[in-house]
Each structure stands twice: as structure tokens, then as C-alpha cells.
Amino acid sequence: MTYCLSGFKRIFIQALLASLALLSSLVAAQDTARPSADSKIRNIDGVAAVVNTGYVTRKEIDDRIAALQKQGTKLPDADVLRKTIMERLIIEKIQLLEAAQEGIVVSNSELNKIIGDIAAKNKLSLPEFKQKVISSGGTFERYQQMLRDDIVISRFREREVEAKIKVSDAEIDNYIVDRMRAVNGAGASRSTPAAPGSPEEIDVAQIFIPVNAGAGVGAQAEAKKKAETLLRDARGDVDFLQLGAIAAKENPQIKFQELGYRTPDRLPQLFYEAIRNTGGGQVANAVVKSPAGYHVLKVLDRRALVAGAPQQAAPQDATPSAPQNIPITQTMSRHILLRNRAGLTDQDAERRLAGYRDQVRAKTADFADLAKKYSEDGSAANGGNLGWMSPGDLVPEFEQAMNRLQIGEVSNPVKTEFGWHLIQVLERREAQLTVEKQRDFARAAIRDKKFEQAYQDWIRQLRDTATVKIINSEDAASVPR
Fold first, then answer.
1. At residue 174, does pLDDT exceed 50?
2. Which residues span the domain enclosing 54?
3. Which of 194, 234, 263, 290 would you call most buried, defined as having the most Cβ atoms within 10 angstroms of its Cβ?
């Protein structure tokens, strides 16, 4: 498995190891002389927020920020960053407390076995792995606690979200039909509209500008102004989700997502009231204000709800009457990967890969030899060769850069979630995507989309029902640790 492969689930052990830099620790109480809850909160050094029966400390926020800075990650301004990290820690704390109430635990023996597996995957003995953890700037005990928390959250999420996702054969059939229409140039299918008063499903997308309910008038006004600007832009001839992606790139706090087809009762009431009379392809008339911030909504589609499976009208002869293989182009490429890690900035990684690129282009070095020597991917031993890859097998940034290359051409450095890559295309061929593979691909794609929707809904529900009191997130911890 290569680090640039995409998929529904991250490799569990890799995900845990990647979070090594995000170590955090709780700060002990200084004075417990007074028995009241409020006085205990005040006497805990550096509390940023009280979360149900737990709390998030400013020291934890500091640790997360320091870890991101060590990774060379491009970060927003300090105020935005602290609030973003604090919100992330609040969500994690809520999940840990809820998981504990549900009896989800990781025993010491189980934790030790997982750590042993991680060490083995990295070809290290347990003492060597412990030393690696310590050399990263933390203690092994803190790493164990971080790892335990990650596993608990993962299991809680799996039980509450992933295990409840179902994909029907009808959904797979519809997905394949849409793909075949696209391949045959028939365009996207048109949904059958619901008759007046009949049950329907609505596909809604949103761009969300968060703002704390306790924020000042200035912050509220600024968020509302940004939302109204996006709403105005969305009325033009633009791709709504692309507009959201651009806004999120400018401000990482802004979120965008397609909620997918839902019956009105499964939409937030505020959303449904805003788009009740909005047609498919249109944006809501006004920005929606919720306790969490401002929402810009667009109705992507409305369709009749038919018992059993969603029904869609298809133009006659737009698609074949029976499933068939789909022609695809497969690419064989190789790469050199420099993974995201503490001590390696984006600038350093890009500079190193540019040097390798120049050597290959000048024919003073062989790409495969450089990959064997410098690549930090499992494919290094094979000269970085990834084998034959079909569309959708690789993360988008990698695949898009690869598709722009001619055979034999070497890319400029490419950034993905896994690190920085240098890519060379070796060969291309035409192949057939079998019906069975199509169904596997469709099932995974539908499940991906459903998971993202269900996960965001679940997290929002946990956050909305939690008792959270912000104490002080602005300042760093006062006592060095």
C-alpha cells in the first residue's frame, strides 16, 4: 500500500503514527482548598474550556500549535489558529467522554500490542521505537495516552457512524448509470420532480462561516458580511462547491459540503425553511443564521421520493440497457515521496525534490536510483514504481499532476496530504473496468459520501448537545511544563 493511495479508511497504524507530533498533556490543579465546581475550575492552571465533566487546557492548545509549526505547515493568523485548535480539542474531548460512558476502553495489554505492531511496521525494535518517540520531544507515557485516545475515538466513531452506513443495490445501480451517461456524453441525469404535496428528497450544499455565539458585534458583522458576499457570488455562473473550496483556502475556518439527498425531516429545520420554495440549481434567498454561524445554501436538486429506491428519469437510449465494461486509461508511474514530519518544512521538501528533478532532466541521475535512496514510501525498494493505476486510485492532487505528464516526463514537486512527491509517468494503456469492479468502486464511493455526511451530522449533534464553557483561549499557558 503506497502512501499516495486514496480510500475510505486510512491505514489505521499509519494514521496513529502520523499523529505522533500531536502530543498533549493535561495540567494539574494548583489548589483544591475550595469545594465548589467554579472554584475548582478557577484553580486549574490554564483552563481554556470546560467540556461536560472534563476540560481543555491552554497547554494542550499550545502543544498542538507547536507540533503544527514544527511540521512547517502553513498556518492562519494566531487568533484564528488558537480558536480552531481549541474547537478541535473540544470535539475530541466530547468524544472521549461519551465513549467512556459507553464503556469503550483500551486495555494496557491491547495498547502494548498495538505499539509493538507500529514499531514492527517501521522496522524498529520496541526500545528503538520508544527512543524515537522521546527524541520527537515528548515522553513515551504521553504518547501512550495520545494513542489510547486515538483508538478510543476511532472505535467510538466506527460504532456510532461507520457501522450504521448501508449501501443498497439500487444506489449502486443509479451510480453506475450516471457514470455511464458521463462516459457516453449524455450528461448528468435529470431527476423526476415531485408532484405538489408529494414526498421528495432535496440535495443541499452549504458554505458555512462559523462564529462563536459569544463573539463580539464586530466578529458577528464580519462573518455575516463574508456570508452575504459568498451568497452574491453563488448567484453567478460559478460552481458552488468550488466557490466554497476557494473560500476555505483563504480561511480554513470556512467549511463547505454537499449534504446529499435528504427528506425534509432529515434537514436542519433552519435549512428547510430557507430553501422550502427554492428550485433545483438555485441558491437560498438569504443567508441563514444559526447559533454556530452563518450558512450559504444552494439546492443542487429536488426529486420525487419513491418507495424502495430513488427513481430518476433517463432520456431514452441515453445509456445502455444492460451493465457493460467501461473503457478507462491506466497509468504506470513512479514517485519519490518526502513525508510530512517534524523538522522538514514545505520549502525544504520542495527544494530537495526540485534538485532531484533537475538531475533527472539533465540525465545526471536515474529516477529509480533516487527513489531507492531518498523516497520515504513503501515503493522505494522498487524504484518508486506504483504499478498500473486506474482513475480514482490515487489522491486527487497526485492524479491530476500525473495526468498532465507525457510518458517519460518528470513533474514539478507536488503537495498532497501525505507529503511532497516527484512523479514520472512510465507508460499508459487502455483497459476495461469490469461490471464487478464498477460495483465495488460505486459501493466505496457511495459509502465515502455517506460517511462524510453522517460523520459531520454526528459531530454537529455531539457538539450541540454538549455543555461547553469557554474560559480563556486567547493566552498561552502561564506555567511552563
1. yes
2. 12-162
3. 234
